[in-house]
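Q: Hi! First time doing this. I have a protein sequence and I read that you can turn it into a structure. Is that right? Here it is:
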Amino acid sequence: MTLFKLFIVSIVITIAKSQNFTCENLLDISDNKKSVSLPKLKTIQRKDIITCLVRLGKEPLRSLEADYIWHSIKIFYGDVANIPESILATLQWVTPAIPAEEYYNITLGSIDVIENFGKDYGLNENQLTAVAERVRHDFKEPEDYTFYDLIALKQILCAFNGSEIARIHAKAYKAAFVEIGELKRCSTDVLQAFFKLATDSSAFGPPDYWDNVVLSSIGALGEFLPKNIQDKISKAKREMKQSLRT
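A: Yes, that's right. Below is the predicted 3D structure, encoded as structure tokens:
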């Protein structure tokens, strides 16, 4: 076979492969989990990384892969400030790859974008602080937060200070208290502010009157309750588990 024919064959094979490309082809299946490897990422075009972003970010990523995907996104769009909201809203586990300083060029004014950054990806303190600062600048004031806003903000709320949390309406907190009870690594200042909201008459009032649903879902706020109420929380959780089994 001549060199020319070999060249033609290689082109045909390349075209065939590109035509059969699917996002699933990027994923390595191991231990019943699907993840992506850096070598495989380097074999495809950046536009395909964008196309497959939802699938690529669905599962936790190693830092090398997350960094490569984020770098590819930046190159594809030319600059962080040019990345569309639709892409920012679907980053998922690529999110930890964004350095704190790059948030200065990202707008967090859309509820869909905020929802992505409000999930718990284990961002470090500098990253979470940068996210919260963008939300302060781009989004609503705390007193205007709705139930939906609080659920979207979620982990970002832990980077606020207690005085900001205190401005949230107790009724909005009440509607989102289950999700807020799932917050992790919040400061004592923030948790105490949420506890004050929980005991407001527009929320649940005095803890002595909280029912099992509230007690079992109050989360980290339980540490500010008296010992007798904490005992009620343990009992409520046991009863809730038993009711789910029957």
